[in-house]
Amino acid sequence: MAGTSGGGRNGGTPDLSELAAHSTSLERSGTAERVAAVLRDRITEGYFPPGSRLSEESISGALAVSRNTLREAFRLLSHERLLEHRLNRGVFVRVLAVDDLVDIYRVRLLVECAALRALGEPPFDLGAVEAAVSSGEQAALRDDWPACSTANIRFHQALAGLANSARTDELMRNVLAELRLAFHVMADPRRFHEPYLTRNREITDRLAKGDAAGAERMLAFYLEDSRRQLAEAYAQRLTER
């Protein structure tokens, strides 16, 4: 007769005592994920700007969580390339290199264009795309360029979301969160977002007409122009810091 430790492999009832021993760490991990979500939002909003040091004592106290839980959250965000550990100095919000920007745009080009290329027959569900474009236009009218930046991020998330893939959505969330680190270094958000309001609208209108191929071509040129403009300005900004 098979022993209980091998029961799962032999068709019997498995011994779950070893799994039960991990329950505490799983509970802590769940809390760490929630803490990471809070910090991710604050980082992408610019509350913790690139290059800033995150104090374990202050943040754990503010969020009423243990330092171990906070360190797990830091590790999660380090995997997402939002934070970095510096030996004997602590945890800092990353400052992207120009090469990081180039790679981010490479991923965006692959994912966003593929989402449009894979669209089936029109009409397409453009509710989230249209909402993001309208939000950006309204923010520009208010001269609220940080809000315009957020709307632009949502526009690109919505384009990728047309793929109807949870994994693609997660990938784009992480990539675009990392991209916002670059925008927080730049001094003039209007310069980088205003020219693309019209292009966002044009891509949306093209999709509304059922021309996914045309919209994809427009998006490819758009992303290349954006990459070149941002990378050049970002490199200049880094030399000034």
UniProtKB/TrEMBL annotation:
<dbReference type="InterPro" id="IPR036390">
    <property type="entry name" value="WH_DNA-bd_sf"/>
</dbReference>
<feature type="compositionally biased region" description="Gly residues">
    <location>
        <begin position="1"/>
        <end position="11"/>
    </location>
</feature>
<feature type="domain" description="HTH gntR-type">
    <location>
        <begin position="29"/>
        <end position="96"/>
    </location>
</feature>
<dbReference type="InterPro" id="IPR008920">
    <property type="entry name" value="TF_FadR/GntR_C"/>
</dbReference>
<keyword id="KW-0805">Transcription regulation</keyword>
<keyword id="KW-0804">Transcription</keyword>
<dbReference type="InterPro" id="IPR011711">
    <property type="entry name" value="GntR_C"/>
</dbReference>
<dbReference type="GO" id="GO:0003677">
    <property type="term" value="F:DNA binding"/>
</dbReference>
<keyword id="KW-0238">DNA-binding</keyword>
<protein>
    <submittedName>
        <fullName>Transcriptional regulator, GntR family</fullName>
    </submittedName>
</protein>
<dbReference type="InterPro" id="IPR036388">
    <property type="entry name" value="WH-like_DNA-bd_sf"/>
</dbReference>
<dbReference type="Pfam" id="PF07729">
    <property type="entry name" value="FCD"/>
</dbReference>
<feature type="region of interest" description="Disordered">
    <location>
        <begin position="1"/>
        <end position="28"/>
    </location>
</feature>
<dbReference type="GO" id="GO:0003700">
    <property type="term" value="F:DNA-binding transcription factor activity"/>
</dbReference>
<dbReference type="InterPro" id="IPR000524">
    <property type="entry name" value="Tscrpt_reg_HTH_GntR"/>
</dbReference>
<dbReference type="Pfam" id="PF00392">
    <property type="entry name" value="GntR"/>
</dbReference>
